[in-house]
Design goal:
The N and C termini lie far apart (48 Å). The longest helix is centred in the C-terminal third of the chain and has 40 residues, at 155-194. 78% of the residues lie in helices and 0% in strands. It is globular. The chain contains six helices and no strands. Helix 1 runs parallel beside helix 6 and helix 5 packs antiparallel against helix 6. By secondary structure, the protein is an all-alpha fold.
Length: 195
């Protein structure tokens, strides 16, 4: 059941984002020419690098964000890749998943501490601000369910429940994170094309 809900969830999110991009385009005007598609890909790549005019804490936060984004992609691929193919997470993929999890948690904590001021709600609130706080709140159950399952406090049955809770909270986190990343990319592209 979890496999099918994951497949449906990812399909709906990616289809919805694709439709949103087609209906509400942003960026370069000739949308489907080879030059504009290449420009868009290069532009997305340059969004990862900190701008020269930024101060050091902002540059550091952006670099930590990029490392966290890479860790998220690895966790997404190793956590949901085998599941979507009908397999279980084990062996080298499990070791890779367990290696990148603390990196992602550390990056999320640093971005939360350094970016909390930027994501305070004001009169011009955006969906990305709400997404930031929702993801921050969801990172707790994703993390705690797995950490607590490593200790023999709850017995075998409790560990199975915690593993299921980790899977469901990770699925919700991943779907919201993909939507949040899409909104952040759109904001940056719109900001750059208005200059």
């Amino acid at each position: 059941m979890f496999q099918w809900i994951s497949i449906i969830g990812f399909s709906v999110v990616f289809a919805g984002l694709f439709l949103h991009h087609l209906i509400f385009p942003c960026g370069y005007k000739p949308r489907f020419t080879a030059g504009s598609l290449i420009r868009k890909k290069v532009h997305l790549l340059t969004l990862l690098f900190p701008e020269q005019k930024l101060n050091w804490p902002t540059k550091f936060r952006k670099l930590v964000f990029v490392l966290g984004l890479f860790s998220f992609c690895v966790l997404l691929a190793t956590g949901f890749g085998p599941l979507l193919c009908g397999c279980r997470l084990h062996g080298y993929l499990l070791m890779i998943h367990a290696t990148f999890a603390p990196v992602f948690i550390g990056c999320a904590a640093i971005v939360a501490i350094l970016g909390a001021g930027q994501y305070c709600f004001n009169k011009k609130d955006a969906g990305t601000k709400a997404g930031f706080w929702v993801l921050l709140a969801l990172s707790l159950p994703v993390t705690l369910t797995m950490v607590l399952s490593m200790f023999p406090l709850f017995g075998t049955h409790g560990q199975e429940i915690l593993l299921d809770a980790h899977r469901w909270s990770a699925l919700i986190f991943a779907l919201i994170a993909i939507i949040e990343l899409y909104m952040l990319i759109r904001m940056e592209v719109l900001k750059d094309t208005e200059r």
